[in-house]
Amino acid sequence: MTTPEENAPVRGARPMRRPGVGRDAVLALGLLGTAVAGVAAFVKAASADGVRMPVAPVAAVAVLLLGVFLAKWSLAPVRRRPAGYAETPAELPDVGGDALDHAAVDADGFEHTVAALCARDGCTAVEVVGGAGDLGADVLATTADGRRVVLQCKHYAEDHRVGSQDLQRFGGTCFAVHGADVAVLVTTSSFTAPAAEYADTCGILRVDGEALAAWTEQQAPPPWESPRACAAPSS
Fold first, then answer.
1. What is the pLDDT of residues 138-183, one digit of tens each?
2. CA distance 170 to 61
3. Spatial CB neighbours of 229, under 8 Å, sequence gap ≥ 6
């Protein structure tokens, strides 16, 4: 059973910026050059046919129209998902400092609440991957210092404890298949003694219902910041 420790500072989300500023500038200059070259070719062709064109006004209008287009394009909002979320913001609950009622959601919803906790506490590349064929991984995340976190979520009733078979199935894939640096099994209930012993032997972190409440309320650090967090065992 994990024990609450001192509060860990919560890292805020980074502000979103339009990516590729240098690339955008090159693209804008390329469009400008194309427009000017096109106007010049048109004027040259018209002159060859004996048609006199007001070169300066035509070029000025072309450049003006291109400038308006580029200004609208550069100021358009960037519709991207926030860093650290695999789902849209509406699909991941906003986890604040108050306790979240994990028992009020179903098993799929529980995976999303755990993913939201990971994102809140500084993880990036957070993915909810639970489902058929997940090979024991429900949530994947990357810590701020680059460690890969693999979490399995067990949404059990209080009297349904996580057994050793649950831990053995997870232990067989979390490191070898998913490449975990930190493997965590999170449950709304508790662990049997054999399950706890197996987890401790294999280096799997356990978060029971009590520890989950402390993590949610920010009265304990996230599992990957606990003293028991360890790297994947060497082969």
1. 999 999 999 999 999 999 999 999 999 999 999 999 999 999 999 9
2. 66
3. 182, 205, 223
Per the rule left: phi > 0, alpha: psi between -120 and 50, beta: everything else, 217 is alpha
Tell me how far apart the alpha carbons of residues 153 and 235 are, in angstroms, rounded to a whole number. Answer: 26
Alpha helices in the chain (DSSP H): 21-48, 55-75, 107-120, 164-171, 193-202, 209-216
Domain ranges of the chain: 21-75, 89-225
pTM over 0.70: no
Q: Could you say which of 3.20.20.70, 3.40.1350.10, 1.20.1600.10, 3.30.2290.10 is the CATH number of the domain covering 89-225? A: 3.40.1350.10
**Token pair of 205 as six digits:** 């972190």
Distance CA 140, CA 102 (A): 19
